Amino acid sequence: MRWLRADAAALCVAALAPAPLAAQALPPSPSLESLVVRLTAMSAVTGFEDAMADSLLALLPGSTRDRAGNVVLSRGSGEPVRVALCPMDEVGYVVGAVTPEGYLTLRRVGSTAVGPLYDQFLEGQRVTVFGRRGAVPGMVGVRSTHLTRGRPAGDDAPFALDHAYVDVGATSPGGVTTLGIEVLAPVTRAKAPQRYGAGGRLLAAPWAAQRAACAALLSAARGTTPAGGTAVVVFTARRHFNQDGAAFALWERADATAGQIVLLGNGAGEALGSGPVTTADSLNAGRSRRGVQLWSLPARFARTPVETVLLSDVRQLEYRLASWLGGAR
Amino acid sequence: MSRRLALAALLAAAPCALQGQNPVTDAADVLRQLVESYGPSGAEGPVRETILRLLPAWASPRVDTAGNIRIRIGQGQPLIVFVAHMDEIGFRVTAIRDDGQLTLATLGGFMPSLFEAEPALVHTATGPVPAVFTPRDTVGPDPRRTPAVRQGARTTLQFRVDPGTGSSGGTEALGIRVGDAVTMPKRYVPLLGGAGTRATARSFDDRVGCAAQILALRRIDPRRMRRGVEFIFATREESGLLGARAAAAELAGERPARVYALDTFVSADGPLEVRTFAYAPLGRGAVARAVDNSSVTPPALLDSLVALAQQRGIALQVGTTNGGNDGSTFTRWGVPNVPIGWPLRYSHSPAEVIDLRDLVSMADLVTAIVERW
Q1: Is the peptide bond before B56 cis (omega within 30 degrees of 0)?
Q2: Which of B35, B89, B145, B158 to mutate to test the interface with A (most CBs of A within 10 A)?
Q3: Tens of pLDDT, residues A238-292
Q4: Are the CB atoms for A59 and A220 separated by under 8 Å?
Q5: Strands B119-124 and B181-183
Q6: DSSP structure class, residue B56
Q7: Does the beta-carbon distance from B193 to A194 stay under 8 Å?
Q8: ipTM of the complex, rounded to two decimals
Q9: Which end of chain B has fewer CB atoms surrounding its CB within 10 Å, N or C?
Q10: Is B135 in contact with A137 (Cβ distance < 8 A)?
Q11: CB A143 within 8 A of CB B270
């Protein structure tokens, strides 16, 4: 059984080179690069993935949204059934309250451990509030450097959300409402992916590895047609609430062949240039757990605003996904 | 065609005809260009070029040996001086490590944590090179807020800049050298709340002062000047008022009547500040910066400034704040310093916030002072 891929030559290269390819050997195609930049520039606070899902639905003709909010594309029929899952969400924030002076306070959303400095990385930075009338720019307040002079300054604990006030320029709760912002409006850092390194081979952004992995899956799914069996691609919601979007997807696909489920993840600590790393894992699926292969994209500076991926690693992941979904072992 | 219809047709056909008539829009246009130019302390070249481009055609600027832009209008003594600084806070590359990463020293005073794990730009001789500020190497179970260790007067940062090369040779191949300045990418972003006159960006301090001078110069008719006025766009304020210090020494012989330093009024009008002093709300006009850490305004000159503002109907607040200003380098030469600021929230952060109406107020005040002189 073989897949027919638009870029047959590239697939041949991948099939002939099962070992990880040299970091510089496969420069990313413009289409994959643009998908990586596009997805890393987007925000999808866990539980509030609708806008991201809408974009993926538009980018992946034939896909649908399931009851859990996942974006699902199924192609082909019969055995074997292969399922590739990529979480599309991120740990973010929602508006917790509006102060009488028109500032917004924040509540973090997502149960994933993100480290003690995650909230500090918000301090004094621009954010985007996703109100009912569109995206609203703001920033998280910080004490003025000059006004700390002459006052006791110690070796403080990290900035905490209790001190996070988002300034959108409003001066009253009514002014906030006018902008379409209400309690529970999602909030993330303002995103501007940074390309760096010789030739821009590296990309830094919050949650870059997960989003780049989704871009690789999206690109693989867009560029392939199954020749046999069933290939299911799922962009899952609420990864940061115990992977419950993925759990629903696997419960729905109880026919997924044993050992034929791939979950894409963040390879924190893996060396850039080593290509995707495979480990065994498991996920909830209804009343049971299902074994999955975790394919992790190497990431540097993970869980920081400059989480970095190497674009040639993303390219390798795309090839591997296209090959695997097509039936290669 | 009725007059109303004719006006509507004119508006539809030539909307640009109305540009230049809204002071807030004009102020935003000038300020955006200044803020989106880079000028870390000691490396003010790009912002200097932007200022020179924005000046009125009649101005005859010169760049002095300290890198300051100097514009003299009018003739005759005594002289008054306005000064705003061009530079912004940042870092300087102190070494290139074997792994290609850059160690840093700070240019100016600020909270290093605001730059940790953020995008970076290294300003090389051939242009900016994108990079990232690394996170600290280890976090540990009980991390502290500040990624720096202070030993006496020396502060060692616990993060570096990574240009993503992996080797010192690779870094040098990008044109990066020891001594280059480093900043964070920045953008001027209007805030939508309130009256729609607020904006956020890095380096409003002191591009707003520069913008006020440019806006005033655009309104002044130099042929009507009775005495001399000098406008200075100064270098290296954040590194110790160095550009202004050089200009002050050069001008001392002319015995200026006074200097007006146009610089930030760091305001306690923010959600995290203690409002025991420095409280000047945004949007209520420029601020006579009567007392700060470097100077005190002579009471008679403060009264005179307030009277002029009242006479012209210009919004002006009076307050005290922290920080120094370039005008203080003139006082040792016997020149009274009258600093004027504009309220700023979140000073020296990547997302300072201003209200454009305060810039308009300050530009009006500068214009009024010159016209009265």
Answers
A1: no
A2: B145
A3: 999 999 999 999 999 999 887 899 999 988 778 999 999 999 999 988 778 899 9
A4: no
A5: antiparallel
A6: -
A7: no
A8: 0.91
A9: N
A10: no
A11: yes
Residue-level length of chain B: 373
Question: Which of A152, A279, A262, A196 has the alpha carbon at shortest distance from B134?
Answer: A196
Domains and CATH numbers, chain A: 6-90+206-326 (3.40.630.10), 92-189 (2.40.30.40)
Give, rounded to a whole angstrom, the gap between the first and last alpha carbons of chain A.
11
Number of DSSP helices (H) and strands (E) in chain A, helices first: 7, 18
* Element at A251 (helix H, strand E): helix A244-252
Which of chain A's residues have a Cβ under 8 Å away from the Cβ of B114? 123-125, 142
Determine, for residues B271 and A149 on separate chains, whether the beta-carbon distance falls below 8 Å.
Answer: no
User: What does the pLDDT look like over A24-72, one tens digit per residue?
Assistant: 444 454 589 999 999 999 999 999 999 999 999 999 999 999 999 999 9
Residue that is written with structure tokens 């210090």 in the block: B245
DSSP three-state, residue B367: helix
Residue B158, classified by CB atoms within 10 Å of its CB into exposed (0-12), middle (13-18) or buried (19+), is middle
Query: Smallest CA–CA separation between B5 and chain A, in Å?
Result: 33
* Among B62, B41, B47, CA closest to B242: B41
Buried b (16+ CB within 10 A) or exposed e, B178-205: eebbbbbbbebbebbbbeebbbbbbbbb
Through-space distance between the first and last CA atoms of chain B, rounded to whole angstroms: 48
Backbone dihedral region for residue A76 (phi beyond 0: left; psi -120 to 50: alpha; all else: beta)? left
